[in-house]
Structure formats: structure tokens, C-alpha cells
Amino acid sequence: MHLHHNNHHAAYVNNLNGLVEKWPDLAKKPIEEILLNLNSVPETVRTGVRNNLGGHWNHSYFWVLMSPGGAKAPKGDLKGAIDAAFGDVDKMKAVVKQAGLTRFGSGWAWLAVGKDKKLTVFSTPNQDTPHMNLDAKPVLGVDVWEHAYYLKYQSRRGDYIDSWWNTVNWDRAEENFKKAMG
Ligand code: MN
User: What topology does CATH give the domain 2-64?
Assistant: First the structure.
């Protein structure tokens, strides 16, 4: 995770510092607003903005979701919503794992609140953020890029996802859930 933070996330930030020189609006607008309106980003920097701003957003979200301490399992309203949507927490984890395993190439698997205010699971390609998927609001997300797991798990993406659950700070996930529910 240290290498992941200091090499991979740092690269996205370095790239953004280059892109802001070509398109100064990048530093002025809220990140989510830019990502939801990529068509208004100049074509010359659009792909770079999508990949690097998305990567910066996703990783910033990911690190704090894994902050040490906090609840080790969902409780309260979040647990109730998970049970209602999936049956129980283990079944939800299985659906997230499946989304991660079936994401071809690189991307992320998300548990999110959809526009109907119900929990849903999906994956996004590359560094696309969950907002780009029908404006969903994320509760948690797991990085399934090979760079997230190859050092310890080689090609065993499923084993990495199984272990990753042990790092989740469910207090943070619950905050995300409350924010998503408005
Ligand atoms: Mn990553």
C-alpha cells in the first residue's frame, strides 16, 4: 500500500500538475463537477484529465476508507440497507468480489447508493469514478488494478479482495452512506 500511494497515486498528481498548465480551469472547478462534465473539458487534455483526476479522486477516497481503527463491521442503517439489498453482509461482499473479478483489465469495484436511494454494486473501468456511473454515490470501493495487489498476491485478484475487507473502516463507510442518502 505504501508503494501504491507513493508511486502510483503520486504519478496521477504529478500528471495533474502538468495538465493544469495547459488548462488552468482544472485547479478552479470542483473535481466531481469536472468529472461529470468531461465534454466541457478541452479535447487536448480530456483523456489526461479523465484518467489522472479520476485516479486522484479514487485513491484519495480509498486511503481514508482504510484508515486504521473504526468499526470492523457495518452496523445500524448501513447494515440494514445491506441486508435489505443483498441478504446479508457476506452476500454483499460476494457481489463486490464478483464485480471486481469480472472487471476486465484495470478498474474499481464499488458499493454505492443509486439514484433510487438503494444500494447497488458495479465496477468502473480504468480510473473512472463511481459518479460517472449513473451519478451513483459511493459507500466503499476497492482498487482492482494489478498495481494494487501484484506484489503480495501476484495474479490472485480474488484473494486480495477477500483480504482487503479486513482493512475497511466501517465508520467511514457509514459516513459515506449517510452522505449518499442525503
Ligand atoms: Mn491504484
Answer: Helix Hairpins (1.10.287)
Instruction: Please give the distance, rounded to the nearest whole angstrom, from the Cα atom of residue 4 to the centre of ligand 1.
Output: 6
90 dihedral zone (left: phi>0; alpha: psi -120 to 50; beta) = alpha
Q: Looking at the domain covering 76-181, what would its CATH class be?
A: alpha beta
| Other CB atoms within 10 Å distance of the CB of residue 12 | 19
pLDDT tens-place values along the chain, 182 residues long: 888 888 899 999 999 999 999 999 999 999 999 999 999 999 999 999 999 999 999 999 999 999 888 899 999 999 999 999 999 999 999 999 999 999 999 999 999 999 999 999 999 999 999 988 878 999 999 999 999 999 999 999 999 999 999 999 999 999 999 999 99
CB atoms within 10 A of CB 153: 17
Same-fold call for 2-64 versus 76-181: no
pTM value is 0.94
User: How far, in Å, from the CA of 59 to the mean position of ligand 1?
Assistant: 6
Alpha carbon of 103 to ligand 1 centroid (Å) = 14
